[in-house]
Amino acid sequence: WSRPVKSVFVTFPGNIVKNMADVELAQSYLKKFGYMVTEQRSGFKSKVSIAKALKMMQRQMGLKETGELDKPTLNAMKRPRCGVPDVAN
Amino acid sequence: YSIYGGVHKWDHNDITYRILNYSPDMDSKLIDDAFARALRVWSDVTPLTFTRLLQGEADIMISFGTGDHGDAFPFDGKRGLLAHAFRPGVGILGDAHFDDDEYWTLGKGNVVKTYAGNAGGAICHFPFTFGAKSYTTCITEGVNNSIPWCATTADYDKDKKYGACPTELLFTFDGNANGARCVYPFIFHGRMYKSCTTDGRIDGKRWCATTSNYDTDKRFGFCPKRDTAVIGGNSEGDACHFPFVFQGKEYHSCTSEGRTDGKLWCGTTDSYDRDQKFGFCPNDGYSLFLVAAHEFGHSLGLDHSNIREALMFPLHSYVEDLSLDQDDIDGIQYLYGNKTGLSPTLNATKKPNLTRSSVVTVSPTVDPTKDPCKIHKFDTITVIQRHLHFFKDGQFWKVSNKTDVGRTGPFSISQSWPALPAVIDSAFEDVQTKRIYFFSGNRFWVYTGSSVLGPHSIEKLGLPPSVQKVEGALYRGKSKVFLFSGENFWRFNLKTQMIDKGYPKYTEASFGGVPNDAHDVFQHKGNIYFCRDLFYWRLNSGRQVDHTGNVKYDLLKCP
After folding, report:
1. B258·A84 Cβ contact <8 A
2. Engineering a disulfide at B2: which of B49, B293, B303, B323 sits with its beta carbon 3.0 to 4.6 angstroms away?
3. In whole angstroms, what is the distance from residue B303 CA to residue B73 CA?
4. What distance in Å separates the CA atoms of residue B534 and residue B164, rounded to the nearest whole number?
């Protein structure tokens, strides 16, 4: 029987440890894809709260609309996707 | 489905496209084929045709780029954003860009086209057996010229079908050497190179000289990506070096040792401990065909859908056999019609039958005490039989859509539509069938001429129980109606008599610039009106607020 090998974890060169907090990631995502600030066609900008923006994003992605940054929402934000904003500008 | 604000579509059906450059991940012929098949996804269900241009300006210009690639939407390296495209129009509009930091395949790992050999340029078959051993990459076993090869069937020993794999020892691409092979060693800036290099370039592309001295001859080409090339790490494009040493131990294949993320990696020199050179082992990659089909949907005028199964859903997932979701088909056919060229919604030639009245004609019950110009808020405003109808407390007034002069009324709701209550929240006319739908609270009625069905619960239409009333209705095309309530709206399908999948949507996300507490929504003379009290926000055909005004003075023609 082989003995379990104790893994040694190393930091690989060039690996940038992204310490971006989940909230920062979410804010960046919500802004990038149009949920956070809806630039309206009349020329006015209306700021949307994070909870509301999250709800919009959750609805778009078919997730439970909690308005909170829960795990399914974070996972969806980390999935590969198209770069076109979801909320048209 | 969603389309861009207003209708942005090509004004011609013979769309042209041009491929400006290629990814080194796949052979150019495979890329050509992936794009052609992706366009065919849409031409199969519409009257659109796609013609490839080799030069000049095409409607859809296709290119690969990395990071900041010249538009306002930079890519973000590996994973994350895969591609983007612009809605139809001139210039950059219509164009599709693909992130070349991604590993582009057909979704199932390496796609390696062969050269020379006896397989006619077929794709490598991985795994294949050779000498009773199984291989999942191109190999140099059995040859004496270092050119990697693969079998193009599962069993080389039986079928003897093979071809050479892409290697700079056979050819280069782009550059200025007409595809000549690399010459090793070569001199660049006085230094000798024995392999492709990224030195001297800021885009990270691997290149080589095609003569023995770049400094004097200036001839070069880019190196084709070998199927064993690593992705990312600090040795992009180099091949794994097996065996390699890591933490004093020898590895003969990719490993996840030393990593917390489980990614498979390898050393690209014989000792990671000494050189610290590594990269990630090739994975399945992203299907260029699937991503391109999605992007071309944008290029044709579709926005993101919120149906998970739809091709136009914004998140990428691999499917073996793509078939468009009905939502995608509905969307693209809304814009361009079906294969026979008949558009279900645009350019409809069928006119409403004006000879058959669905409204029971009654004489105006003139009541001088009921002056609509003194009303501060109407129960609902809608268009029925080309007349704007203003409903309030059991009565209504009409203003002709056509003549736009004067108004008639008040008329009694109970005389015109006896089954209805005094307060109507919303109404619309199905111009195809002449049926008129009335909503009050959580109930609705359907009038056809003088016959009526209802009341029914609005839940029967598929609206959730939380909807207390329908506050606005917007007839869209032949068979769809947007129903508004609160800050949401739903799309009601008149054919199926049900709410479509993917709803509700936020009103403000689709109709920018209007109040989210509007209580009347209707279409009048090609514009959309959202009303709050006596004020209205008018959206033009491009869904842009182009005017705000007063219902009384502008629509009701009050003095």
Report:
1. no
2. B303
3. 17
4. 76
pLDDT in tens, B370-413: 678 888 888 899 988 888 899 988 889 888 876 656 788 888 88
Residue-wise pLDDT tens digits, B513-550 = 787 778 888 888 888 998 888 888 888 877 777 787 88
Provide the ipTM.
0.80
Angle at B65 between CA B61 and CA B69, to 5 degrees: 90
How far is C-alpha B366 from the geometric centre of its chain's CA atoms?
A: 55
B318, closest residue in chain A (CA to CA): A80
Tell me the C-alpha distance between B389 and B407, whole Å.
Answer: 10
Q: Answer whether A37's CB lies under 8 Å from A31's CB.
A: yes
Burial (Cβ within 10 Å: 0-12, 13-18, ≥19) of residue B153 = middle
**Residue A19 CB: number of other CB atoms within 10 A?**
6
Residues 6 or more apart whose CB falls under 8 angstroms from that of A12 comprise B233, B258, B259, B265, B278
B85–A contact, CB cutoff 8 A = yes
Q: What is the 3-state secondary structure (H, E, C) of B199-243?
A: CCCCCCCCEEECCCEHHHHCCEEECCCCCCECECCCCCCCECCCC
Residue with token string 């077929």: B122
Task: Of B453, B431, B432, B433, give the one whose Cα is nearest residue B444.
Answer: B453
pLDDT in tens, A76-88: 998 999 999 998 6
**Distance linking the first and last C-alpha atoms of chain B:** 43
Q: Does A88 contact B at CB distance below 8 Å?
A: yes
| CB-based contact B521:B378 (threshold 8 Å) | no
Whether residue B116 contacts residue B164, with contact meaning beta carbons closer than 8 Å, is answered with yes
Cα A39 from Cα A85, distance rounded (Å): 12
B340 φψ region: left (φ > 0), alpha (ψ -120 to 50), beta (else) = alpha
Q: Cβ separation of A88 and B5 shorter than 8 Å?
A: yes
Spell out the residues 6+ positions from residue B76 whose beta carbon is closer than 8 angstroms to its own. Answer: B67, B99
Identify the active-site residue in B168, B236, B295, B429: B295
Confidence of residue B5 (pLDDT cuts 50, 70, 90): low
The CA distance from B345 to B516, in Å, is: 27
B306 close to A (CB below 8 A): yes
Q: Are B182 and B168 in contact (CB under 8 A)?
A: yes
Kind and range of the H or E element at A73?
helix A71-77
Q: pLDDT grade, residue B286 (50/70/90)?
A: very high
Contact between B120 and B152 (Cβ < 8 Å): no
Neighbours of B191 (CB within 10 A): 11
